Amino acid sequence: MLLGYALVDNTVEFSETKSLTDLPLRVSDIQGPGYYELREGFRFRHGFSSPKWYLLPPEHRLLVVTPSYEASDALNSSERRAVLFGAKPCDLRAITVLDKILLGKHPIYTLKRRSVVGIIVEECLEPGNTCFCAVVGSGPTATSNFDLAYARLDENTVLFKPLSKLGYELVEALSLREAAREHVEAYYSAVERATSTMLKRAPSLREVVRALEKSINSEELWRSLSEECTGCGNCNYVCPTCFCTEIVDRVEETRSTRVALWAGCLTYTYGLVAGGHFRRELYTRYRHFILHKFLFYPRQAEGLLGCVGCGRCITWCPLGLDLREALSRVVREVE
To answer: Does this model's pTM top 0.70?
Structure first.
């Protein structure tokens, strides 16, 4: 099974790819705060979905109970082997983060992750307007935990970079020739331009972490930062590293099922529990979302950030709120 970004009904989704014609090879995505559009071109970054939609589906059954109270595990132990194709470097980092937190602890994630037998990464040589992976160190190139990476210099030239045994076997099977010097130089120049462009879009990670640590008790600052947020949870649902789920039991006519559903920490119901609400005010949920990404994830994921700089939370925010601007403001006002 080949999983990657595919054109589905004039949109791009991370899903099973049936043929090469499904791949978004002839489109470009134009992204901005609260804005997304597909046009003709060849520089595609990503859509609202990511490999997480396969590894940790938005809804997945855990248990089935019959009317005679016989319970059975609903997880499919015969998961097909999968290859992730065209995942971006930010997606790759997100998978690594989820591995640190969920692998071995969440049944469906562990099952699907172990079905992945290969990861082929498309490196980004021209970042989108909401991308900032270079700021958090997750791109624009892939450096580890993949089998084969490729970069499209132009519509007719592709550079391949194998890392694992499988990657080298694929390169050999494709009978590729060694890259010309001018192509390698063009590749590194493009990487340098992309990195430089993104580093100008947000303060340095060191500044951000230091300022966020000082801002935790700055209620006035966080109220101001979150005043335009509606708590819709879009940023949670498009984020490739958000992993919160809630368990729901559904009673049906012939059976009952226990399912796991994505939960967003910015939504009001997230903090609603028996006996009260532990984050009733929106500013506390907004603060938690950002602090979790930059301060708390490293404690869960062995030093890795929860933000991979993909920019999805910016593109898919209906109000066009820009995380980079929020971080810049925290740095300015706290420092």
So the answer is: yes
